[in-house]
Amino acid sequence: MTLPALFVAHGSPMLALEDHEYSRFLESLGRELPAPEAIVVFSAHWDSPEQSMTVDESHDTMHDFYGFPEAMYELRYPAKGSAAVTQRIASLFEAGNLHYEPVLGRGLDHGAWVILSKMYPNADIPVIELSVDSRRSPEEQYAIGAMLKELRQDNVLIIGSGGLVHNLRLISQTDEPEAWAVEFDEWIARNLETWNLKELFNYDKKAPHAREAVPSYGTEHFAPLFYAMGAASDEAKAKRLIQTYQYGSLSLNCWMFGGS
Questions:
Q1: Which of 5, 27, 220, 234 is the most core-located residue (most Cβ within 10 A)?
Q2: 132/228 Cα distance (integer angstroms)
Q3: If you classify domain 5-257 with CATH, what class do you get?
Q4: pTM
């Protein structure tokens, strides 16, 4: 069986402590998927012009946020790394003529460990975190993800962690979804389900309410979608597993790409 690639919205860091429909979905997803040998996460919270990759034997837990309850800063996700998987990724990047930077001692940011703490709470699966580059074109982001598609045949789970509608300046105090956010998400959904790369690569010009959903200062949260899609480009099929909202427009969804 080939594992799927996933796009997972990580929402607020508080997801690590919350109990609601979306958090319970992530818990069940981790139980339902075949247990991976390792997990590779492209995180929106590591935005770098150089493709970077953690190469640690074990990871610290980054608390890269402020103003949250003290309990958030006490959480730890002590996952190990994997020298074998990092070497495999390095060889695939080299084959794709992509320069990469091995990084020691960074730790896992909350884009990675928050969702993994729900999906795999025992932290017993090796994790490798990869950066995204929000300045690259969607085509380039997709192509980088595609370099790693072979990993899925080796029982490695590839996740893009971000947010399709993620504009913190437009959030409200209600969970009732804003119509504009829903309209944007549904446009994305239609084009994902038909794997319409021409439209998706031009989402910023074609999608309704694109400027509100993906503000110019927040494109790094949308970028992981293309990395995850690329990792399943050999199958080119998409399925939305859940769609909910917090704070009016903070989209919490999970997309599964490929998997057979």
A1: 5
A2: 11
A3: alpha beta
A4: 0.97
